[in-house]
Design a protein that fits this description.
The chain is of the alpha+beta class. Helices cover 47% and strands 21% of the residues. It is built from four helices and four strands. It has helices at 2-16, 30-44, 58-71, 96-109; strands spanning 49-56, 77-82, 85-93, 114-116. Strands 2-3-1-4 form a four-stranded antiparallel β-sheet, covered by helices on one side. A hairpin with a 2-residue loop joins β2 and β3 (85-93).
C-alpha cells in the first residue's frame, strides 16, 4: 500500500514541477561592435587566392554562379565586375598550394577554371 501511494504521490507531483525560466541581458561596449566591423572589412579586403570559374554578361554570370553554388555549396562564391565582363569566382584560399589543390576538384566540373590572386574585389 505504501508503494502504491508513494508512486501516486510522485506521479501527481511531476505535473506541478516547473523548470526555471529567466532572461539573459548582455551588455557590451559599443567599441566591440565597431571593432568587429573593422575586423570584417579587413578580412574581406585581404589578399587571398580565388578560383575563377568563368565570365560573361551579368545574366550569364548569375546562371553560372547558381550552378557553382549547387556543385560546391560549402564554398563562398562571388560575382566580380572587371570591365567589360562579370567574373564568377569561388573560394578564399590563403596559400597558393591550397588553391591549387581545390582547383583540381573544380576543373573536373569546370575545365576552364583558373587560380587567381585578385588585386581587388567589388561588391
Amino acid at each position: 500500500m505504501k508503494t502504491i501511494s508513494f508512486t501516486l504521490f510522485l506521479a501527481c507531483s511531476a505535473f506541478y514541477c516547473n523548470a526555471q525560466q529567466g532572461n539573459i541581458n548582455i551588455q557590451q561596449d559599443e567599441k566591440i561592435t565597431n571593432l568587429l566591423g573593422i575586423y570584417k572589412s579587413v578580412n574581406e579586403n585581404s589578399s587571398h587566392y580565388r578560383i575563377q570559374v568563368g565570365f560573361g554578361s551579368f545574366q550569364e554570370a548569375e546562371t553560372l554562379k547558381a550552378n557553382v553554388d549547387k556543385d560546391f555549396p560549402n564554398w563562398p562564391t562571388k560575382i566580380d565586375f572587371e570591365s567589360p565582363s562579370y567574373r564568377v569566382r569561388i573560394g578564399k584560399f590563403k596559400t597558393q598550394l591550397e588553391g591549387e589543390r581545390k582547383l583540381i576538384e573544380v576543373r573536373q566540373k569546370y575545365p576552364s577554371a583558373m587560380l587567381l590572386k585578385p588585386e581587388k574585389t567589388t561588391n
